């Protein structure tokens, strides 16, 4: 017989109640009872024994292994999503409200159908293993308040092709991008101070890393094992990177003074211009990329392969071009 893990079931959702605080936590029926299916809408307030309780937490393992669960609507009353809350569910996307301040370890791990997620600006830490094993994940937006990306956060997210780490992030944990076999481009912020062990280990298609940190981040010796990337860093810092292991083991090149990553089409797609070369990263293989002058002259074209396309315009820095990515056009300064 399976022990009960809940106080009451209300409108198809299992809850535990704190009668003193008048709050409710979403939970599960029993350890191995996968009792949530299809779409679930969590209310802001739930009535129980004549009282009203604000739903403030999605508890540990609340939806764990609910394979037939495809979507969950989270109200803006929720402040905490606990460890393994959605582990192994069938959700394809999730909207996390800005009321959420804490997301526990592995909360969305092994969600094999999850394709997109946005970490809200209210979250400061991406916990251990948060998105590990999300094989279908292609679109990630990291909130502006995130400072720490812990161990294994994106481990084996095998369809992730490009990641822009926002300004404010100070550390990337061990194995954070381990086994991201399609990852081709990563942008690292000025604020980055530390990268943990094997962070990019065996990312065999990672060809380009744009690192804007002027001070060389502390890094474990094995972060780039099996990685063929060229690393672009601030021009004034090239010598420091070339003399610091393990950075010195890779090809280090200067970022052009005006090199800027431009978000386009999706949060994972970026356009970077340097030395007359336009690089589009994070788009779908087979997509056409064309570059025109502002007068409409075709300067070059390429097809995205392994998430990346490059067009050498042969123009000088400071020139303005129009980059067409699929059906969307963006003006870019070289």
Topology record:
Blueprint: E1 8-10, E2 13-18, E3 23-27, E4 38-41, E5 45-48, E6 51-58, E7 69-73, E8 80-81, E9 93-95, E10 102-103, E11 116-118, E12 125-126, E13 139-141, E14 148-149, E15 162-164, E16 171-172, E17 185-188, E18 194-195, E19 208-211, E20 218-219, E21 230-234, H1 238-242, E22 251-255, E23 262-264, E24 266-274, E25 277-281, E26 288-293, E27 298-303, E28 308-312, E29 320-325, E30 328-333
Parallel strand pairs: 3-6, 4-7, 6-8, 8-10, 9-11, 11-13, 12-14, 14-16, 15-17, 16-18, 17-19, 18-20, 19-21, 21-22
Antiparallel strand pairs: 1-2, 2-3, 5-6, 23-24, 24-25, 25-28, 26-27, 26-29, 29-30
Top keywords for this entry?
mainly beta; 7-stranded mixed β-sheet; 1 helix; Leucine-rich repeat, LRR (right-handed beta-alpha superhelix); 5-stranded parallel β-sheet; 37% strand; 1% helix; 334 residues; elongated; single chain; Immunoglobulin-like
């Amino acid at each position: 017989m399976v022990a009960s893990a809940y106080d009451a079931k209300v409108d198809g959702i299992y809850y535990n109640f704190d009668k003193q605080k008048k709050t409710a936590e979403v939970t599960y029926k029993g350890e191995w009872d996968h009792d949530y299916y299809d779409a679930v809408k969590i209310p802001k307030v739930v009535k129980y024994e004549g009282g009203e309780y604000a739903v403030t937490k999605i508890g540990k393992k609340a939806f764990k292994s609910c394979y037939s669960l495809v979507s969950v609507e989270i109200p803006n009353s929720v402040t905490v999503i606990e460890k393994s809350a959605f582990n192994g569910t069938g959700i394809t996307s999730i909207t996390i409200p800005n009321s959420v301040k804490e997301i526990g370890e592995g909360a969305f791990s092994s969600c094999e159908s999850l394709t997109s997620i946005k970490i809200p600006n209210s979250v400061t830490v991406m916990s251990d293993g948060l998105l590990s094993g999300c094989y279908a994940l292609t679109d990630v937006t990291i909130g502006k308040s995130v400072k720490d990306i812990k161990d294994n956060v994106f481990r084996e997210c095998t369809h992730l092709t490009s990641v822009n780490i926002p300004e404010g992030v100070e550390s990337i944990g061990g194995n954070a991008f381990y086994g991201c076999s399609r990852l081709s481009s990563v942008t690292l912020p000025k604020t980055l101070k530390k990268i943990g062990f094997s962070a990019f280990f065996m990312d065999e298609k990672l060809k380009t890393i744009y690192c804007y940190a002027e001070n060389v981040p502390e890094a474990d010796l094995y972060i780039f094992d099996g990685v063929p990337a060229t690393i672009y860093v601030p021009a004034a810092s090239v010598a420091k990177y070339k003399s610091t292991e393990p950075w010195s083991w890779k090809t280090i090149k200067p970022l052009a003074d005006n090199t800027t990553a431009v978000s386009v089409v999706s949060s994972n797609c970026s356009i970077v211009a340097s030395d007359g070369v336009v690089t589009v990263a994070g788009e779908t293989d087979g997509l056409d990329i064309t570059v025109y002058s502002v007068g409409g002259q075709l300067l070059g074209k390429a097809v995205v392969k392994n998430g990346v396309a490059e067009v050498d315009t042969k123009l000088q820095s400071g020139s303005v071009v129009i980059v067409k990515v699929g059906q969307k056009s963006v003006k870019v300064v070289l």
